Amino acid sequence: MYNTCNLCPRECGADRINRMGYCRAPREIMIARAALHLYEEPVISGKNGSGTIFFCGCNLGCVFCQNGVISHDFAKVKTAARIISDDELISIILNLKAEGAHNINFVTPTHYADSIARVLKRIKAELRIPVIYNCGGYESIETLKMLEGLIDIYMPDFKYFSDELSKKYSFAPDYAERAAEALAEMYRQTGEAVIGEDGLMKKGILLRHLVLPGCRKDSALILEKIAETVPANKILISIMRQYTPDFAPESMKELRRRITSFEYDFVLSESEKYGFVGFSQDKDSAKTSYTPDFSLKTF
Ligand code: SF4
Fold first, then answer.
1. Is the model's pLDDT at 118 over the cut of 80?
2. SS3 (DSSP) at 101
3. Which residue CA neighbors atom 3 of ligand 1 most closely?
4. Where are the domains of the chain?
5. For atom 1 of ligand 1, which residue has the closest CA?
6. By the 8 A CB rule, do 162 and 29 touch?
7. pLDDT single digits (tens) 66-106
8. Closest ligand 1 atom, CA of 6?
9. What ranges make up the beta strands (E) of the chain?
10. Of 166 and 289, more confident
11. pLDDT digits over 22-77, tens only?
12. Dist CA 81 CA 2 (whole Å)
């Protein structure tokens, strides 16, 4: 598949053996960090933490990305990122489980989806903790179908409704259409969100929406679109306030500020209209200190 990669809706057809596609991912699996993470939503992090594995490259490349050093710039900036084999990925997954991870959380996995499917087919039966696909929402249906039965929890973003915004900030003018189709497919696969007696999520969808400065009306349209696509009370939704302007380009003045309480509260009240349940964030979540240190050797 990597000879002509069409894993995501960009379908750029890159021959990843010889050159990078839009996502800048090599043919082999490349990761930057594998560690227990305590700052996901409580149903994901629990007491011990989520077993996060951060992949290099990204099929969106948002201009304000807080993980830019591993999603866009891993070839230029020195991090702990390196290429690993299938066997190494399996050891990393099993080590995270042995350390007490409540789940295995693949972060930005889209452009490695067929490698992930291949690895999960080898270990899913013995894993016995949920597997999370923590993605940007810009997903292809064919790729998601390849993952059916292997992923327990989909954790997609839904970033934009406006094609103009998605083009400007993520170079993906068809984002909303693709994200809605993907969400419907994810729901078809996992069904209703299930929380166990231990308070941890076992299956379903936890959808994330990061509120951007100046975009509260777009957020409202996103929520409406989500409610049209899946039953609002059968998924969990996380309305995120953690946008930090430090990573946005100087030239995009509108992104060089934090969101206001007025903007955030507006989006929360819109979400209540549809009966969504889930999570909100405190004002102090908008800090760069919550971004993982990708220079640390963790695997
Ligand atoms: S995953 Fe990467 S190489 Fe493959 S189609 Fe998408 S952007 Fe192109």
1. yes
2. coil
3. 21
4. 24-290
5. 111
6. no
7. 998 899 877 777 889 999 999 999 999 999 999 999 999 99
8. 5
9. 29-37, 50-55, 82-84, 104-107, 131-135, 153-156, 194-195, 201-210, 236-240, 277-279
10. 166
11. 999 999 999 999 999 999 999 999 999 999 999 999 999 999 999 988 998 777 77
12. 20
* Ligand 1 center from residue 268 Cα (angstroms): 34
Assign domain 24-290 to its CATH architecture.
Alpha-Beta Barrel (3.20)
The pLDDT score that the predictor gives to residue 2 is 61
One-letter amino acid identity for 284? D
Check if the beta carbon of residue 298 is closer than 8 Å to that of residue 257. Answer: no
Residue 24 CA: which ligand 1 atom is closest?
A: 2
Say which amino acid occupies 231: P
Cα distance between residue 57 and residue 70, in whole Å = 6
For ligand 1, the distance from its centroid to the CA atom of residue 257, given in whole angstroms, is: 31
- Determine which residue's CA is closest to atom 6 belonging to ligand 1: 8
Whose tokens are 């003018």? That residue is 173
Query: pLDDT band at residue 6, thresholds of 50, 70 and 90?
Result: very high
Q: What is the DSSP string of 155-198?
A: EEB---S-HHHHHHHHS-TTHHHHHHHHHHHHHHHH-S-EE-TT
278 touches 236 (CB < 8 A):
yes
In single-letter form, the type of residue at position 39 comes to Y
If you measure from the C-alpha of residue 12 to the centroid of ligand 1, how many angstroms do you get, rounded to a whole number? 6
Taking the centre of ligand 1 as the mean of its atom positions, its distance from the CA of residue 157, in whole angstroms, is: 18
For the residues 286-299, what does the mean pLDDT come to? 83
Structure tokens at 281: 């964030």
Ligand 1 is surrounded, with C-beta below 6 A, by 5-8, 10-12, 14, 16, 21-23, 25, 59, 111
According to the model, what pLDDT value does residue 291 have? Answer: 81
